[in-house]
Amino acid sequence: MEWAWLIPIYGFGAFGVIALMRENLPDRGRFLSVLAISAGFATFWFVLQDFLEHGVDQYHFTVEWFTAGRIDVALGIIVDPLTVIMLGLVTFVALAVQIYSLGYMAGDKRLPWYFGVHSLFAAAMLTLVLADNLLLLYFAWELVGLCSYFLIGHWYERRSAAEAAKKAFITTRIGDVGLLIGILLLVVNTGTFDTLEVLERVSHPAPGQELSNLLVTGSALLIFLGAMGKSAQFPLHVWLPDAMEGPTPVSALIHAATMVAAGVFLVARLFPLFEASGDALTAVALIGLITALVGASLALVSTDLKRILAYSTMSHLGFMMLALGAGGFTAAIFHLLTHGIAKASLFMAAGSVMHAMDGQTDIRRMGGLRRRMPLTAVAFTIGALALAGIPPLSAFWSKDEILIAVQKGLNPAYLIFFLLAIVLSALYMARATRLAFYGELSADAEHAHESPLVMVIPIAVLAGLSVVIGLLALPWGDTYDGIGSFLFLQEHGPHGFEVVAQWTVASIVLAGGGFAAGWWLYDRRRDLVDSIRIRFGALHRLVERKYYLDDAYQWAIDQVVLRASRGVAFFDRRAINDGGVDGAAASAMNAGRALRHHATGLFADYGVSMVLGVIGIGLFFWLRA
Q: Within its chain, how far is the Cα of 495 from the centroid?
């Protein structure tokens, strides 16, 4: 287990070599990047085997790093069930995406840079997962954001891609300011960067070292602000759909295992901090629920296949935050795992469609694609059914865990709205699947074709895992009593597999009914869909305009930020520059001009000056006497 630190090192090394050598490397450096993440995935299995042999627990490996004043900062890793699951998810999805990219990105003019940054992106996320102190965690956190900026803006020649990259970077920076302040508050008041020591001080402080509830709640909420930005929680979600301007493999990696997963992981890693503040957990649950509903509604009206999947990610991230707010640590991370596998397959399938249809993403111009792309259609359908919560596919089991957590830990109102979100989730996945892949073959899809095997195989593997990985929820053998016996908080201990019959039935009925209703509406009753759209025109426009949040942010930027900036610039130019800097210089110049008139270069003038000076001195002493 102590060698787990090697897993991100491979990626950092690959980035360094590719960034320096680029086109001079064999095969433009592609296979070096794939080899690096393959080595990381292989190392993960050794770490997992050693972890299981030593027993499910929390292991901490550390070495001295540096000392700053009275604070000793160590460099180390934490290996626990949360770490192990995230290592497996990130390395596997990154490997699948890189193999897929061999086909999807073939011929790209900046291919070495793409694969190099891809390696750096995965390495940064893996460092974030392993980090045992808040300083290293923050460094990796910012590196994840920087890599997302590079990859979203990979095709920066397109203005839309360049703007999307800036939007993602700036929006997440807003949250990151909160994260930094929250970390500093904890470090100043605990005297350490060590994550486990900080959490111990929060949860079990020594007598006289208790932290105030205001400090704990404030730190937790500020840290959650950072998670809101990275995990696209309302209202900091606006960057997520625009990030679809990047290459589709980047979307798959961001949505399945890196960028957006970072926020959920952060709250899970620091869960005892949130648990110590009931108000912070309530905020997490409330924001998660709002995000789930807003994301689902936006997915229901979007006509862009990739953006539908992006809003789906937003909604499911809301599910995870809701679960964490309800105290369902296991449910949230289990759903992060099942969602990551299914969403990676869905994005890759969408990329396969774009590859076959010259970049087309409008589902209204698709239809009948299963006739031209049967493997992609089957994989997309499996992923859609899984995320809709249809048994026995993966997300059904994790949604059931969330449902039980919400029912036990929160007000019944949360449960009602969560059930509504389940229906909407099934509805928009049915809509996307039916319109894109089934029905009559559209004219635009006539020349579509199945993607090459290097793209299809990763999609098929991920889709296959979406069928079976949810079974981790069930007991297997004598030592494994379900996911709760492996993934749990140390303070709470393991718990066995649990089924609450009425909620399981409700989940199946709502998910199945929502998917069936969506299929029926978009297969047989398009007229009914149109009439509903007309009848609720104002509501439809509100959702279609994304609740006017983008417009509100743009207004705030134009009318508040830019105007304030112009005011600051005017003050800086006139008061600081012209008055303070140039003013001092101008005063010296004017004084020099005034004083230089006595230096005429004529002997007579100097003689007169000397005589007048002597007379003046004489008068001074005479009058004084």
A: 29
